[in-house]
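#struct-queue
[09:14] JT: dropping the first one here, sequence first, then the structure tokens:
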Amino acid sequence: MSRLARDPNVEGLVAAYRADLEAAGMFAENEVTSPARSFLLRVGPDGFSAMTLDQQLAVWGHDRRLVAWLIVTGRIRPTADYLIASKLRVGKVAAGIYREFHAGFLTVAGELGFDPKSAELQWWAVAKVAALAGAAPERLTKAQLDTGREQLIAATRRLHPDHSLRARPVATRLHGAEATFGVPPVCPTPWACG
């Protein structure tokens, strides 16, 4: 019995996923790549984007881990509602993908007086905005940061109408992140270094 022909696009994504996992020091063997391949063949980035929010939230386990990677690498453009409702840890995934920039971001935030937890929360908010924009964190523009902030705050208020104060941390973290972005060497963004 012969093996079925493999989809070159899917195989390219699986190879990139494996490479990023390995570069981040994470387990990337067949137990991880086989479910990724299956999800990409069954659903794929376009299929995930076409799902309702409830269907997207039902994606779990290995598939959720892959979805986080697809989002952070700009292969899926999530909605703000998904990012808020799913509590997907895009900041953690982005820290692994954009290691050097993440390290520089945290260093500068520390030099500005932000404690490590605040700096990491800033990073997580930046990673969500980058996911919404479909951009690498170091390539975010001021306009994308502002638009992302508005979308995340609106989604938070929409999904948690009884808890209006839940939107405040997003605004605070992104305000701090703007200060961190504005200091060399973290400021390769088009708007920060002018």
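[09:21] JT: and here's the second one, same format:
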Amino acid sequence: MIRRLIYLTNTRPDISFSVNHLSQFVSHPTSEHHQVAMRILRYLKRTPGTGIFLHSQSLIQLKAYNDSDWATCPETRKSITGFSVYLGESLISWKSKKQQTISRSSSEAEYRALAATTCEIQWIIYLLQDLHIQHVQPTILYCDNQAAIQIANNEVFHERTKSNDNII
């Protein structure tokens, strides 16, 4: 059932977080996990028209939102990176994943999320070029952490800001 729910997240991003969290318990599921899966299925049954919609008259403008949840995994203390990328008004890419390493600060976790989002944006731009779709406007990338923005804008002093949350 989880494999089928994961497949559905391709067109139903609204269930991505729940299915991702549920899929972490595939090796040792309990009756509580089964109840959660059934609740997701009931939600899907109640909302059949919800999903990804690609507008035909939308601008070819990329914009992305990213965030990080610092040290939220209680077992590993790893942060979770999340982003969503839009082409015009249509959601075309999204991700929510534990980071590979443990971040020393929320700024570091946010900077890693910013880097992951930037890589995804670059890949999408290459894809648009391969499809001969003109993308001339700069991509808008939204980030809610001022320290991560400062680190990304600073081309010189990255070592000095490695685990400093007080950058403004």
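[09:30] RK: nice, looked through the second one.
[09:31] RK: The longest helix spans residues 106-130.
[09:31] JT: good to know. Helices lie at 2-8, 16-23, 31-46, 106-130, 146-153.
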